[in-house]
């Protein structure tokens, strides 16, 4: 199987990016470096390096001042501009940030004496903002939501429109605004491991309106993770996630993961935490694919809490693209590859096998895993569905009765 496919021990425990709490910078005296301890025996490399550095500096001083009769020093300066890191698209990261950051907002939620902070993306000129459900969850039963636009100082009041706790997506709206710049969504179904990405967000909630920018790559695709909050009182299983090594931190939740063109290909949502053996994961974060976000937006605009995510087919799936098709020797280059089948579930009873590729549901073409998720959201437990499959070179159609998730 492709190395993009999650291993058999999924779902993996991860931590949703905690909404950041305000951080107070340390006093100046706290930044004074401690006095280094004397060199000890058993540290020859450190001692040798120090000696070499001193000798080298002295030699440079003597060589640089031979023949001079004064102690004057000539300091050279340059007026050349700085150059940002170059992305595969040919654009620099500063150019990308300048283009996209006006469509990114910092989110602050006050409810019940607590305060949470996160990030959001403007998706319409009249102020619709997409973010994570866990960023605004404290305000579902009442609370104050404000947003601060990038480069702005004044918090703007916002209201909750709709939320989907099962998929950790929410929609809010800034009041009394117009003409706002909005993000552009990219095609997340064409991503491949190694693609360059940039994350933007209100990391640590350090200063609203001044988002943090980090760069990385897509390190894996099709991940299924079980995310829980810091108190471990609630959890959610998110499938077909984008894995990235771009640094994301508390407060980044709801912010965009961008491709090299500055298009949103994901929403930063969770980071890997401690493993069962006590070790900590390094530079592993997860983003909800843009293809799923686009499916969710019309549902969220209807308002309220989406609770109709009960129907389950009982499969673990990932999107098929040409690279997956080649590595797994598949006869099709699109669809939803079945990684696992839940024993006794709907798919198992219908005769769906691991390695099958779902290419149609009720006669509707399926080209990626998110379309299967969207199909499930529009159906209820007990509904019978026709599932078109490709198994090797065979094309099959089976009927499955959806179960309860």
Write the layout of secondary structure elements.
Blueprint: E1 12-16, H1 44-65, H2 93-100, E2 104-111, E3 114-122, E4 128-131, H3 133-136, E5 144-149, E6 156-164, E7 169-174, E8 196-201, E9 212-228, E10 235-244, E11 256-258, E12 264-271, E13 285-289, H4 290-300, E14 304-305, E15 311-312, E16 315-320, H5 322-327, E17 335-341, H6 346-350, E18 357-361, E19 364-365, H7 369-377, E20 384-391, E21 394-401, E22 403-404
Parallel strand pairs: 1-9, 6-14
Antiparallel strand pairs: 1-12, 2-3, 2-5, 3-4, 4-7, 5-6, 6-7, 8-9, 8-11, 9-10, 10-13, 11-12, 12-13, 15-22, 16-17, 17-18, 18-19, 18-20, 20-21
Helix pairs in contact: 4-7
CATH-assigned homologous superfamily of the largest domain: Trypsin-like serine proteases
Oligomer: single chain
Number of strands: 22
Question: What's the CATH topology name of the largest domain?
Answer: Thrombin, subunit H
> Runs with pLDDT <50, length 5+?
1-12, 23-69
**H/E element order:** EHHEEEHEEEEEEEEEHEEEHEHEEHEEE
């Amino acid at each position: 199987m492709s190395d993009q496919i999650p291993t058999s021990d999924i779902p993996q425990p991860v931590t949703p990016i905690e909404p950041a709490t305000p951080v107070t910078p340390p006093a100046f005296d706290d930044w004074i470096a401690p006095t280094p301890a004397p060199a000890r025996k058993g540290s020859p490399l450190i001692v040798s390096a120090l000696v070499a550095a001193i000798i080298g500096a002295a030699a440079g001083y003597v060589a640089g001042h031979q023949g001079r009769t004064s102690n004057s020093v000539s300091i050279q300066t340059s007026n050349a501009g700085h150059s940002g890191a170059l992305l595969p698209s040919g654009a620099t990261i500063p150019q990308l940030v300048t283009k996209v950051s006006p469509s990114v907002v910092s989110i602050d939620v006050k409810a019940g004496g607590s305060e949470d902070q996160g990030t959001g993306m403007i998706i319409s000129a009249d102020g619709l903002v997409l973010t994570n459900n866990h960023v605004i969850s404290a305000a579902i039963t009442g609370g104050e939501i404000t947003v601060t636009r990038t480069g702005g100082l004044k918090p703007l009041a916002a209201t909750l429109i709709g939320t989907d706790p099962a998929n950790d997506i929410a929609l809010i709206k800034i009041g009394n605004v117009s003409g706002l710049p909005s993000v552009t969504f990219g095609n997340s179904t064409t991503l491949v491991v190694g693609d360059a990405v940039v994350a933007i967000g209100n990391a640590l909630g350090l200063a609203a309106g001044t988002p943090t920018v980090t760069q990385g790559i897509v390190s894996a695709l099709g991940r299924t993770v079980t995310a829980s909050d810091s108190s471990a009182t609630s959890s959610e299983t998110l499938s077909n996630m984008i894995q990235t090594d771009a640094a994301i931190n508390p407060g980044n939740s709801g912010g965009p993961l961008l491709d090299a063109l500055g298009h949103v290909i994901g929403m930063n949502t969770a980071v890997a935490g401690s493993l069962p053996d006590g070790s900590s994961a390094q530079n592993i974060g997860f983003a909800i694919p843009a293809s799923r976000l686009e499916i969710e937006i019309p549902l969220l605009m209807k308002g309220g809490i989406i609770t109709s995510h009960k129907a389950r087919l009982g499969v673990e799936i990932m999107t098929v693209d040409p690279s997956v098709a080649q590595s797994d020797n598949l006869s099709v280059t699109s669809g939803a590859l079945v990684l696992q089948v839940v024993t006794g579930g709907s798919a198992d009873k219908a005769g769906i096998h691991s390695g099958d590729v779902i290419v149609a549901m009720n006669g509707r073409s399926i080209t990626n895993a998110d379309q299967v998720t969207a199909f499930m959201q529009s159906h209820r437990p007990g509904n019978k569905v026709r599932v078109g499959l490709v198994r090797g070179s065979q094309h099959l159609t089976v009927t499955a009765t959806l179960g309860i998730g």
